Amino acid sequence: MSKSFDLSASFKAYDVRGIVGESITCEIVEAVGAAFVDVLQLTGATILVGGDMRPSSPEFSNAFAQGATRRGADVVLLDLISTDELYYASGTLDAAGVTFTASHNPAEYNGMKMCRPGAVPVSSETGLVQIQALAERYLNTGEIPAAERTGTIGVRDVLRGYAEYLRSLVDLSGSRPLKVVVDAGNGMGGLTTPAVLGDSLLSKLPLNIVPLYFELDGSFPNHPANPLEPENLRDLQAAVVSTQADIGIAFDGDADRCFVIDELGNPVSPSAVTAMVARREIVRAQAEGVSAPVVIHNLITSRAVPELIERLGGRPVRTRVGHSFIKAVMAEEGAVFGGEHSAHYYFKDFWNADTGMLAAMHVLAALGEQPGPLSDLAREYEPYFASGEINSRLEDVPAAVARVREEFGNDGVTVDELDGLTFTADDGSWWFNLRASNTEPYLRLNAEAVDRQVLETLTEQVLAQVRQ
Asked: Where is the Alpha-D-phosphohexomutase C-terminal domain positioned along the sequence (predicted)?
């Protein structure tokens, strides 16, 4: 009896992600490789294929290459890469590509992040749905038809080029000496950090890198490569304090996000990092003659971010959460930079794509060009008090939202519906956003206020309505 394939469990809004051997197999990947060529019309073109340190990534890369070459594309295998290395290669070589990664997900997962030439993302709105449908057809008929010409397979190493390119964007050679603890979480930061910040490929910088979990190991023996969870930052925080380092940096599994720890072991919020990098990118753009550089921020970043952008003569543009939206708005607006509360940072100079390493370099440059500690520097960018994301699991999300709207949607409060509901006090003392999860029965609360007591009172009042 023939199998019937339904790939909806692994095809998400922005990428493909599933459990190895179940919802993602070599057979499935080969069909996706063929469908990728057909949907993006890449017969005769070059496709870049790489993967992270997960044990299944090499075999999946080869399976994708088999499917793609059968449909007439030429494949260049990049072997071990971080996700932002794929974007670098796609941008410089103007070629479509895929990297096999499940980012911060546990060891049993793997997946695919795809892009068109120039690192333009492939999402459910820009081809992923059609790729899924065609791959299912190939799987259910049991045949991938051969193109007139079978494509070729070659190999290329892009690590040195990636490192040189990033160093050309941020010059750290004049920094004061800094001790930097980097927690790669056994992910791809263990390969890219020595190449970019160390001296394994390029000249030495005034940085003393203290490595934490640089061994590439997709079983994640030390802790999950998900720095968004506070418990996964504890080893880094302890190492920063014990080694008397100036800064700590943590990367997620595919190293497209970075998280920052100050010299006291305290996290620096992604909003503060967004503001810090925005300042540098605005000043640089203005020096190049751009009169009002655009910076993108999603609606959950601190209000301090748009305030700083305006103060510096830039133009803030607020967008909904999600990297496909940010990248699209970056391109539409010609923005120089974009930041999200989830520690994704996007750069015009990096094909509007997100890169954790480039963001980390900007923070190092900002720290290294002034004499004070990071805690003092970060405080300049964190004038408000934030709740962080608070999730409530609910039977009836719409009813909870309606209760909050009735309680707070009155005189003196402005409500907007860009992404969920955002309530803002007209006197500027607080704001909060409620967003329903796309995939789970959760309602997510993010709040910010001018002082801690106002924030605590606000959070209690909102959760009382949400959870009653």
From this structure: 389-463
> What is the rounded distance in angstroms from the CA atom of residue 52 to the CA atom of residue 99?
7
Q: Are 84 and 355 in contact (CB under 8 A)?
A: yes
Q: Is the pTM of this model over 0.85?
A: yes
Q: Which superfamily does CATH assign the domain made up of 270-380 to?
A: Alpha-D-Glucose-1,6-Bisphosphate, subunit A, domain 3 (3.40.120.10)
Q: What is the mean pLDDT of each run of 10 residues along the chain (468 residues)?
A: 83 94 98 98 98 98 98 98 98 98 95 97 94 98 97 98 98 98 98 98 98 98 95 98 98 97 97 98 98 96 97 96 85 97 96 97 98 97 95 94 94 94 97 87 95 97 96
103 is catalytic: yes
CATH label, 161-265, candidates 1.10.3470.10, 3.50.50.60, 3.40.120.10, 3.30.1850.10: 3.40.120.10
Q: Taking the domain 385-466, which CATH number applies?
A: 3.30.310.50
193: tokens are: 């950090």
- Which DSSP string do the residues of 17-37 spell out, in sequence order? EEEBTTTB-HHHHHHHHHHHH
Choosing from 10, 57, 90, 103, the catalytic residue is 103
Q: What whole-number distance in Å separates Cα of residue 414 and Cα of residue 257?
A: 33
Cα–Cα distances in angstroms (integers) from residue 158 to residues 32, 248, 442, in the given order: 24, 26, 41
Cα–Cα–Cα angle for 360, 364, 368, nearest 5°? 175
